[in-house]
Each structure stands twice: as structure tokens, then as C-alpha cells.
Specification:
The protein is α/β, with parallel strands linked by helices and 215 residues long. It contains 8 helices and 9 strands. Helix content is 41%, strand content 15%. The chain is elongated.
């Protein structure tokens, strides 16, 4: 099990000058942490922009900096290399990208102003567009994987159903906090235990990226 990964997620120094913020670094680290937790191998892709423009480059759109026959040739060469990886390893879970990137954007890309259109548009960057058959996820979305499962839990049937939902989520590489595992059930009613349960659940909700509610 592996993901193909934009190399700047592993090495932020590959990004254009001045565009990386502490919040980006946190998202990159959290995405890599998800992979480590679930045993997902991270296979870095080549960086077309670094190979073509070099490190310490200024930011710019595809039309401003990359719209040349030479860059098109480079993309074709790198596409062959990536397809060889897929042939050898099998289909990856997804490609991890960074939105707005001219090459590695997932749902948005700075393509450039053209025919009255704004420079940023919907769609994949020009490199990721070469692999339409592979699902792509922006690093922001992929990093959101900690789930708080809010559900009824006061019967054996309810708890069994919650266990089943938890296993389904874990199978899709989500980390799940299940309140019934912390002793939150009908048998616990003392004030001290209720306080402990309340505090732990409150902390888990605060730390969660997603709440899944069974209603």
C-alpha cells in the first residue's frame, strides 16, 4: 500500500520562494503522520518545476514560467517514469498534492490569466493532469483523518454497530475515537467517573478533525 506524493510535502524547500507558511508545514507533517500510522509507503514524485527552473525560484503561473516546448518535453519524460512506478508497484491509493500549484494542484491551479479568466482556475496542475485515472487528494484533505464517532451506545446492538463503523473507518485509514471504549456506557454513573468520561470525550472532540454522528 502506497501513495504517490508531491516531493515538496516531504521537502518544503523545493517550493517556490515565500509561499510556505507554518500552517503548510503542519499539514505536511500531519499527512506524513497518517501514512506512518497506517503503514502507507510514501513514494515521492519528481518535481518538474525544480528540475526546470531550479531551486530558490520565484513563484509564478504555468503560463508565466512553464509554458514552453522544453517544459512540455520534460513533463512527458517524467510521466513515463511515474507510469513505470505504477506498473511495477500497482495502483497507488492516491496522489497527494498541494492545491494552487501550477504542476501539482489537485482541485485548483495557478494556470495563468487567459482570455479574461483569472490566473487561478479549477482543475489539476499540468503534471497531475497527466494521471486522470489515479485519485488525487490535496494535502489539506488528506491530513484530516482523526475521527470522533458520536453514536448511541447503551445497548449491545448499538455498541456492535459502532464497532463495525469504526472498523470500516479504520480500513480507510482513519483514526477513530470511540467513546464506549473509554467506559462511556450505561453501567457507569458515579460523579467521579462521569467527570472523567466528560473530560476525556471533550478532549477527543477538540482534537478530532471530523465528527461522524450516527443519528
Amino acid at each position: 500500500m502506497y501513495v504517490l506524493c508531491s516531493p515538496c510535502i516531504l521537502s518544503p524547500a523545493l517550493r517556490a520562494k515565500g509561499i510556505t507558511h507554518p500552517s503548510d508545514i503542519a499539514l505536511f507533517a500531519k499527512s506524513i503522520g497518517r501514512c506512518k500510522k497506517f503503514g502507507i509507503e510514501v513514494v515521492p514524485l519528481p518535481c518538474p518545476e525544480t528540475q526546470y527552473l531550479g531551486p530558490n525560484r520565484e513563484p509564478g503561473t504555468f503560463l508565466e514560467r512553464l509554458n514552453t516546448p522544453e517544459f512540455a518535453t520534460l513533463l512527458d519524460e517524467l510521466t513515463v517514469k511515474v507510469n513505470d512506478i505504477v506498473k511495477e508497484r500497482g495502483q497507488p491509493l492516491c496522489i497527494l498534492g498541494v492545491n494552487s500549484s501550477p504542476t501539482c494542484g489537485v482541485t485548483s491551479t495557478y494556470y495563468g490569466a487567459e482570455n479574461g479568466r483569472p490566473p487561478k482556475r479549477e482543475g489539476r496542475g499540468v503534471f497531475y493532469a497527466k494521471f486522470p485515472e489515479i485519485p488525487a487528494l490535496d494535502v489539506t484533505e488528506f491530513s484530516q483523518y482523526r475521527v470522533y464517532l458520536a453514536a448511541p451506545l447503551f445497548s449491545e446492538a448499538e455498541r456492535s454497530y459502532n464497532d463495525a463503523i469504526t472498523e470500516l473507518l479504520k480500513a480507510h485509514c482513519f483514526e477513530v475515537f470511540l467513546p464506549q471504549e473509554s467506559g462511556d456506557n450505561h453501567a457507569v454513573r458515579s460523579r467521579e467517573e462521569q467527570r472523567r468520561i466528560f473530560t476525556r470525550n471533550k478532549r477527543a472532540i477538540r482534537d478530532a478533525d471530523i465528527v461522524v454522528a450516527i443519528i
